């Protein structure tokens, strides 16, 4: 898993001079922690990742995959029978068979594919996602030392922090990337 932003971008946002290194280790740790927290919140990894997964055949011509957006499909096999590339079409979050159905069965469909939003080796994350990470790191940076505080009152105005694990401004960005947890209560 790659971090969703860089130390240089966070320091620029916080108006910390690039040559000032006093907080570099702290910020680097916060960047990694915030990146993992965002992936957990969204229930997905963002970097393009190759996967081999088994699915139950569903007697339909469409099979939704666990990880999206789908970048490419290397192979599809039903009951260990490999399908030719022209026998299926790939969409953002599912594979559709052209002339047959996914045979009903348990774990009888194997799909090798790649999914994600960007290639961390050569690309940056989508700008709004990187900005969300920068905002979360900044929030943690300014709140450090106050982890045990659940609320504060200033001039008869009370701020509650217990539910502020991810600030609303960050959650609003992340919600469009968030995957529902099927079967979760």
TrEMBL record:
<dbReference type="InterPro" id="IPR021146">
    <property type="entry name" value="Phage_gp6-like_head-tail"/>
</dbReference>
<dbReference type="Pfam" id="PF05135">
    <property type="entry name" value="Phage_connect_1"/>
</dbReference>
<protein>
    <recommendedName>
        <fullName>Phage gp6-like head-tail connector protein</fullName>
    </recommendedName>
</protein>
């Amino acid at each position: 898993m790659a971090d969703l932003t860089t130390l240089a971008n966070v320091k620029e946002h916080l108006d910390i001079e690039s040559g000032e290194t006093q907080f570099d280790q702290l910020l680097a740790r916060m960047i990694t922690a915030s990146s993992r927290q965002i992936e957990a919140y969204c229930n997905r990894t963002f970097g393009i990742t190759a996967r081999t997964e088994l699915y139950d055949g569903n007697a339909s011509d469409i099979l939704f995959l666990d990880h999206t957006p789908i970048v490419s499909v290397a192979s599809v096999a039903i009951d260990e029978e490999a399908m030719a590339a022209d026998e299926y079409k790939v969409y953002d979050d599912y594979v559709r068979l052209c002339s047959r159905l996914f045979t009903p069965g348990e774990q009888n469909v194997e799909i090798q594919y790649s999914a994600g939003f960007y290639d961390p080796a050569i690309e940056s994350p989508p700008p709004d996602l990187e900005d969300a990470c920068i905002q979360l790191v900044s929030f943690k940076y300014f709140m450090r030392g106050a982890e045990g505080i659940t609320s504060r009152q200033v001039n008869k105005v009370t701020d509650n922090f217990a539910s502020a694990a991810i600030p609303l401004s960050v959650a609003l960005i992340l919600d469009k990337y968030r995957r529902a947890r099927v079967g979760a209560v």
